[in-house]
Every structure is written in structure tokens, then in C-alpha cells.
Input
Amino acid sequence: MTEATLAHQWWKDAVFYQIYPRSFQDSNGDGRGDIPGIISRLDEIAALGVTALWLSPLYPSPDADNGYDISDYRGIDPRYGTLEDFDRLVAAAKERGIRVVMDLVINHTSDEHPWFQASRRREEPYADYYIWRPPRNLGDDSGDREPPNNWTGFFMGSAWEWDDVRQEFYLHLFDKKQPDLNYHNPAVIEEIKGILKFWLDRGVAGFRCDVISLLYKSSLEDGKPGAIRGLEHYKAQPGTHKILHELRHAVLDPYNAFTVGETVMVTLEEAKDLSDPGRGELDLVFYFDHLEVDRLVARYGPKPFRADTLLRRLTTWQRGLDWNALYLENHDQPRIVSHYGNDRHYWSRSAQMLAVLQLTLRGTPFIYQGQEIGMTNFDFTSLDQINDVESHNIDRLLRRRGVPYSLRWYLIKTASRDNARTPVQWDSSEHAGFTTGQPWLGVNANASWLNYAAQDGDPKSVLNFYRRLIRLRAASPTLRAGGFEPLIADRAVMAYRRTPTAGSTDPGYTVWLNFSDQTQRLKQPWLTSAMSDPEAGPTGAGPVHPPECVVSNTGRRRLDGCLLPWEAMVIRDGTATPWRGDAA
Ligand code: NOJ
Output
């Protein structure tokens, strides 16, 4: 790789922070976060060590899916502020060394977008901007219209909706208010190029590309049986690769813009192709495999967690892709401390252990708002308190099938995307310092003690642990970019090594993690193979500085043959020269 290419890859050294604007910080008392609110919190974000922001959609939207249904790609929803506010945000972030990345939602628009309104009236040039088809049983005199194929959407039910105006069905892989764009139409691709340029000219550094691997529908044949019927006709198709390459070449490259694609149900092979630098499509991909260790399908159907399964999956991706997008939370996933941790009895320790996991892997970390203070899943007590369109659609479907409330409640409580969408808990005042008005979604009751202000000055807090880990990582080429080797794992424990990058003086590290409420004895062969005894010296000549524990969430500095419940330890190899880094 040439030096120029390396200089262009600023995102490899970045720490991203995802903002879900409506829940971040309200500045005007309307109960929704906004851009001035984000600007007012940039110092807190910078203090974490963050160098890039990903902003979930700020565009005008009827909000059927909280902004992922866009009605104007070149505007800012007035509830968030103005384009001038946005420009101020980009400038204020830049002053703090922080880049801004927008969410790009181009698989679908809102049904209230002027393109769709014109398309349903067959007005040119928009008539063919969406995927319209007549009913399958046209001419049938039963009166019932059948959708053109058997595809099901990601929010359950048929992926087709009848439109009375056009007298045809349109495809929507998500909610019926999110019609899919037609990427067989070159005019649509030209529109997208214009939108990208519009934001790049305003100074954004790139895009997080929503469900980008689903853009191109190769055929509209019936789908095979499965949870999402039809997927094989549109997941990571050659047509999508071609469009991504074209966008990269024609628009993104001239701006040296970064892209991370959300790639639903992607396989390693598909992800490799989508993010292969030689092909020039996406820089990074968000895959989901590592978050589904304890689930049957996507976020549904709980099954027991196993650390060895997680390590196996991490290893596949760590070693399979050149560079990973590292995330444990986003606005669609439950909070990680409630998911893989224990948010009741070991809240702080398990949140810190999970921080160690995320921040000692090879790749670029993405931290989701509130994760850095260990925010937990919602504490709502009934389905009425939920806003998420996906949860409501699923509830409706299950209710129609006669599923009792208790089961619906259980399924939705564990899987609802609102788990991660409650307002950020800034302090212990009313509504957690998020708003002076009525918050759009409930604030967790634990905000009285689990909040940013309470943790800011506490050296033992989850927040300060994140800050120290991010500093440690920034100082360590091995942790950012070194090799990854799985060491040992069982149901509860895992250990892996990070090996030095070529030519670096930063040595290797061994990471030990306990994912259980029990103290776990470490078998002697494990310890021997890991060479992790802090008293052992490095091999070779020269003055010896023994291995050293540089991260611990329990205060212990030696393994002593066991890991305490939810304990994390990072042990730096012995070196010939003293190490001057920062320990967490
Ligand atoms: C993925 C987004 O992250 C999610 O929030 C949204 O509902 C779907 N894509 C549809 O845009």
C-alpha cells in the first residue's frame, strides 16, 4: 500500500461516536434532541477521545421509521434545526478535530417524498423511480388482489402494498411508508450522486449507508422459504456492487470520502467483496454475526450465550476482513450491558469488560451514545410505551395470529429497538438533563444514579474506563492494527492475543475476559499456552521488563489462576525497554 493510500485512510485511526439525534440532547424544550443540543455536547464527546461522528438521519421525514423515511434529501428537519445549524455543527466539530459522517438512506424514501407522489401519478421523469407491479392475479374475478410475489419485509408481512392512485403494488422491504427505489433506472443513480455531492460540499467526511447491500433487486421471482422471503433476489447482487463502484469512482473518491455500509445478513465472502479496497466500493461494513450468538434469528428467539461461540465468530471476521467496523451497540440493538453483560448485579464491571472487548479488537470502533456510561435497556412496563414501528408491526401481526399478550411482551421487550433509543442520561435532574419538556420516549428510571454527571469525576466509573481505554488504544499500534489470534475459550471465558504490527516497538497483548457471574478457574495448560504470567519475562537478550497488566476492571493486576465474575484483564508482553503508556 502506498503512503498516499495510507494517508487517505484516516478512518483507520478514528474512534467514531454514533448520535441518534432525537434522543441525544434537546435545546428548546420540545422533547426531541436537536442540532444545537449536539453542538452543546461536543466537549463531552471530544473528552471521550472521539474523532468522528456518525449522525443518524436529520433530514425532513414524516417519521414513520424515525427519520429512516426521508422526504427531502437536501434539507434538515426543522425539528432538528436548519442547514445553518448543521454547518455550525460541522465547523464546531472540526475545531475539536472531529469529522462528521451522515446517514445515507437510499434503498427507500418516504412515501411522502415528492418523487413517490409523482411516481404514483405516473408523472415523468418519476414514473419509474420505484418498483411498481400489477397484481399477480390480474384478471382474476375473485376481487382479491394478490401481491406480485411472495416476498416478506423486514418488519414482517408482505413486502408489497397496493396503491389506489396508480392501481399497482409497490415494493417496500421495510414499512409500507418506505417504498424501495428502482435501481434499474439510471436516473435514480444520478439523483443519488447529486445528493452525495450536496453534503460533501457542505464538509461532511462520508456516509454510513443504510441497508446498502439490498439496493439492487435482480429479479422479482418468488423467494425461497425463510425468515425473509425473497432475500436471495436482492442481497449483495452484482448490480449493487456496480452501483457502489460507480458512486465511489464518480463522487466519493474525488472528496476522499469514507463509507461504512450496513450490510444485513451478509456472509464473510459478500462482506469481503463489498469492502475490498481493490474493488473500490465501501470502506467498511457493519455485519451482525457477533451480536447474534444468543439468538435464533436476528434479534429474536433467545438461546444461551457462549463465549466460545462469540470468539469463533469474532475470529472469523477479525481474520477474514482486512479491517473491521467494531460495534456492540447502535440504535437498532439492545444495550450491550443488558445483552451480553449483567445490568443488575455486575452492571459497572460487565459494562467495562465489554468495553475492553470492543476496544482491543483490530479495526475502527463505533461507540453508540450512552454506551460510554453503560446505559441499559428500557425499563418500560407495557407495549403502549413503545414507539418503534418494527415492534408495533410485529405486535400487530402476532396479535392477528392470536399470540397472547405475555408472549408478545416478552418477545418485544427483549428485542425492541427502543431499548437503545431512550434519551441520553446526562444528569439526575428531571428527564435526565435531556430536555426541559416532555421527552418523546421515556427516560429510564435508573437515570437518578446512572448518568454522565455522576460518572464524569469518578475515576472508577464506566465513563472514565472508556476514556482510559481509548487513550491506551490511541497509543498502541498493536491494539489498533495488530494481528488477532484466538487463544482459549469455553462457555464463559475467552482469551485472545493481539500481535505486534511489523516494525513497531509496541509489543503484543493478551486479553482475558469472563462473561459470567462466577469466578472462573483458568486451567494450567491455558495459562502456559497464553504465556500470561506477569512474572514471566520475555525471551531474548537485553534488559527485561516483565509482562504487565495494563487494563483491569477489578483492581487486580495478576490473573492468579482465575478470572473474577465479569473480569477483564489486558496483559502487555514483556519488553526490552520500559513502557510509558497509560494504563486503564
Ligand atoms: C436500518 C436502520 O438502522 C434502521 O433503523 C431502519 O429501520 C432500517 N435500516 C430501514 O431504513
Q: What stands out?
A: Residues 482-576 form a domain with the Immunoglobulin-like fold (CATH 2.60.40.1180).
